[in-house]
## 1
Amino acid sequence: MKSLFLFFTVCMVTFFTSGSFAQDSLAKKHGFVGADVCGMCHKSEKAGKQFDIWKSSKHSTAYQTLLSDKANEIATKKGLKVPAAQAPECLKCHASGYDSDSTLIGKKYKVENGVQCETCHGAGADYKDIKIMKVKEDAIKNGLVLPADKEKFCVKCHNAESPSFVSFNCEEYWAKIKHTKPSEIK
Ligand code: HEC
Ligand code: HEC
Ligand code: HEC
Ligand code: HEC
């Protein structure tokens, strides 16, 4: 009996830790606040201008891309019955929060912001407060994700499942969206 219980425990753990990217973000029950809220503190020169760097990257317009004729052509060819911007098959890499319970979506959160801070760093309602943010360990406990292995992390979306995929070079791509704190620049 004991071993059967152990077996099920192992199965459950395996199930919950091996999920796809979408399941990962669903598993966390933290609320989304939106890039504008993160931007309040991550905009200044001193902080490292993360907001501006993100805003001028293609990640911030990834949802807008789905509204284009090109996107809808791709969707139609794939046999999707709805426009690209409504298809989970496209939204899964071009946005976040679209499939979350509405109680988890903050007033300022915009799906239209595409691949935003919380798409990569986890939903931030529980870690965004200054007291928690200042202590890395506390932030992580409250949902902050710091992708340790960039290569592995980026290819969750930058892969051949993307209809327009050509290639992905982690170093080159990271250089385009790098948003390191000034104090960390050596
Ligand atoms: C009230 C201000 C404030 C808000 C809002 C805020 N942050 Fe922060 N954040 C900070 C401060 C302060 C630090 C720690 C100081 C530092 O090292 O830059 C920090 C650190 C971080 C770090 C680096 C952690 C580390 O130590 O490596 C990340 C990543 C981060 N914030 C992401 C976010 C995201 C994503 C949001 C929105 C969901 C957000 N922050 C909202 C103030 C804020
Ligand atoms: C949630 C999915 C997702 C993740 C995770 C992700 N990206 Fe992206 N990325 C996209 C999408 C979608 C686009 C295309 C946006 C568009 O053109 O509308 C894109 C575009 C880019 C571009 C612009 C490429 C060009 O054509 O100029 C760069 C650079 C980039 N990503 C770097 C990264 C790096 C580095 C990581 C990992 C740290 C990463 N991305 C993680 C979805 C993602
Ligand atoms: C495409 C994914 C992606 C997006 C979008 C993104 N980040 Fe990051 N962020 C990363 C990765 C990867 C790191 C590096 C983690 C590491 O090397 O430890 C990082 C690091 C950081 C750091 C720590 C920098 C340091 O030097 O320690 C801060 C602060 C941060 N991000 C804030 C933000 C904010 C604010 C936004 C939105 C305006 C944002 N990020 C959007 C992936 C992303
Ligand atoms: C596995 C993640 C993923 C999925 C699923 C995905 N995309 Fe993308 N998409 C990306 C990434 C990453 C890019 C950036 C270009 C690249 O490196 O592939 C991108 C770029 C694009 C572009 C811009 C291409 C260009 O040449 O400017 C369009 C349009 C697009 N996607 C439409 C769609 C449509 C429509 C769907 C759904 C049928 C979809 N995508 C599904 C990840 C994805």
## 2
Amino acid sequence: MITEKMMKNLSTLAVLSFIALMYSSCKSDKKHPGYEFMPDMYRNAAVKTYRVSDFFNDSLSALTPVAGTMPRGINTYFPYPNTNEGYEAAGATLTNPVALTDLTIEEGKELYTIKCRHCHGEKGDGKGTIKVKGDLFPVPSYFDETRMALKEGHMFFSITYGKNLMGPHASLLSQEERWKVIHYIQHLQKNYLAEQNKTAAGN
Ligand code: HEC
């Protein structure tokens, strides 16, 4: 027979056990939280990229992609090797696949402001806020004779691989973004030419 008194004792015991459990799950040491329910949910075992791993037959944890895999995303396939010949070939054959619209120029401007302006300057005259003293290869103006003669393929190549003091931007901008920035640079060049012609006509 379960008496009323037994019931009372049992519930007191249950309450006390619950409180004890709650207390045991807390610690004053902030670096070590108390009991965690399913800790693996928060802390999965870290696997370093190029460690030998026994998961796949003692190979590296980063597996080589399957033969014939096409890279997607930011580092998409770029068939021109990083040589002078590659540069000339890109200049001769590569054309901008992104439609030239007010919007793509505007998007190019936004990317340029974030990734290029500090070196190339807001106007593209090479007068960015970053100055390299005693520099053999100063940041050029987009409006000098050499840069005005650049084909868009040359620009794409140099932005992708970098050139002298300009670092490669392949991992910083997708191909589409690089083409948009080129639209913006050419937009600056066109405006510059129009300004020049206006001044010449004024004289
Ligand atoms: C660290 C400074 C720096 C940054 C950032 C930078 N550039 Fe340059 N850029 C240079 C320098 C220096 C050169 C001149 C390279 C040379 O010919 O010696 C150059 C050259 C160029 C050229 C001419 C390439 C050629 O083939 O002659 C283009 C186009 C260009 N940059 C575009 C960009 C764009 C677009 C960005 C942003 C996505 C960018 N640059 C970011 C420093 C920079």
